[in-house]
Design a protein that fits this description.
Elements lengths: L8 H14 L4 E5 L25 H6 L1 H20 L4 H11 L3 E6 L5 H5 L4 E3 L2 E8 L5 E3 H11 L37 E5 L8 H12 L3 E5 L6 H12 L4 E4 L12 E3 L3 H11 L6
Parallel strand pairs: 1-2, 1-7, 2-3, 7-8, 8-9
Antiparallel strand pairs: 4-5, 4-6
Helix pairs in contact: 4-9, 7-8
């Protein structure tokens, strides 16, 4: 058994217990922001997370000033957010899927790092920052193209070399004066990132896809999520009703520690790496 670097005996014992309950089972994975912190993207609720008040969908849709503030901050953070690379935890999950041990990954993250790491079946519950769409005509745009257009229409804007990146790739702007909000090039309608804002519901078909992934699996591994968002709890309960073992890997407590078969209090990069090394191949 590979051991945790500098880990205490209790954590090591939890990893061994998790390996035991996951071995021989096809695993569905649910990930949260804690999986991406080692890639330089902070989370909202983890230990040491900055205090942030995320914009709600109602604010975004109703207020031009709110949209201006969003697009300035989002653009300032885009280059750093897009440059973030998959870390050891992402790569471990891709390796487990390659070996046939994972049915797929359901993620609450919008950074696209699971796809870039090589996972083939990824359900992005909260959408992706890679796309933007028009709320009026439905036209979809690549975020990279939009970023180029924002700089063309706002030639004065300068992205600082050092930025305090937010959990969703945004930056708190000092000023939004004079910023031209990007609009749809087809109908001049309102553009919105293809993500689920706070106060917005996950599309029903997207949740059904995630639910189906869990229900066709034999175990559920939850990594880097405090499970504050109800969609995560709902998927956990689907697994529990099927009497599937549930393993939670997260630094600090989660909303569902008492409901887990095994809880590992540790960093996802190292723990997932150990699981990828130690879980045996499925018997044919």
């Amino acid at each position: 058994m590979t051991t945790l670097t500098g880990g205490d005996p209790q954590t090591q014992a939890a990893i061994e217990a998790a390996t035991s309950v996951l071995a021989g089972r096809r695993i569905a994975v649910l990930t949260g922001a804690g999986v991406s912190t080692d890639s330089g993207i902070p989370d909202y609720r983890g230990q040491g997370a900055p205090v942030r008040t995320p914009m709600t969908v109602e604010q975004f849709l109703a207020s031009e000033s709110a949209r201006r503030r969003y697009w300035v901050g989002s653009h300032l953070g885009w280059n750093a957010f897009a440059a973030a690379a998959p870390n050891a935890g992402h790569r471990a999950l891709a390796a487990l899927e390659e070996r046939g041990l994972l049915t797929g990954v359901v993620t609450q993250n919008v950074d696209g790092l699971h796809v870039r790491a090589g996972n083939r079946r990824v359900v992005e519950l909260h959408g992706t920052m890679r796309r933007v769409f028009c709320v009026h005509c439905g036209q979809v745009f690549d975020r990279r193209d939009l970023a180029a257009r924002v700089e063309e229409e706002n030639p004065w804007i300068r992205v600082p070399e050092r930025i305090a990146l937010g959990p969703d790739g945004d930056v708190l702007p000092e000023s939004t004066d004079g910023f031209r909000i990007p609009v749809c090039t087809l109908c001049t309608g309102m553009l919105k990132p293809d993500v689920v804002f706070f106060g917005e519901y996950i599309p029903a078909e997207k949740f059904r896809e995630a639910e189906q992934l869990v229900l066709t699996s034999q175990a559920l591994l939850i990594a880097g999520s405090s499970l504050v968002v109800n969609s995560g709890i709902r998927l956990l309960e689907r697994a529990r009703r099927r009497r599937m073992p549930v393993v939670i890997v997260n630094r600090g407590s989660t909303r569902a520690d008492a409901r887990a078969t095994v809880k590992i209090d540790g960093g996802t990069s190292e723990v997932l790496g150990i699981l990828a090394e130690t879980l045996p191949a499925l018997s044919s």
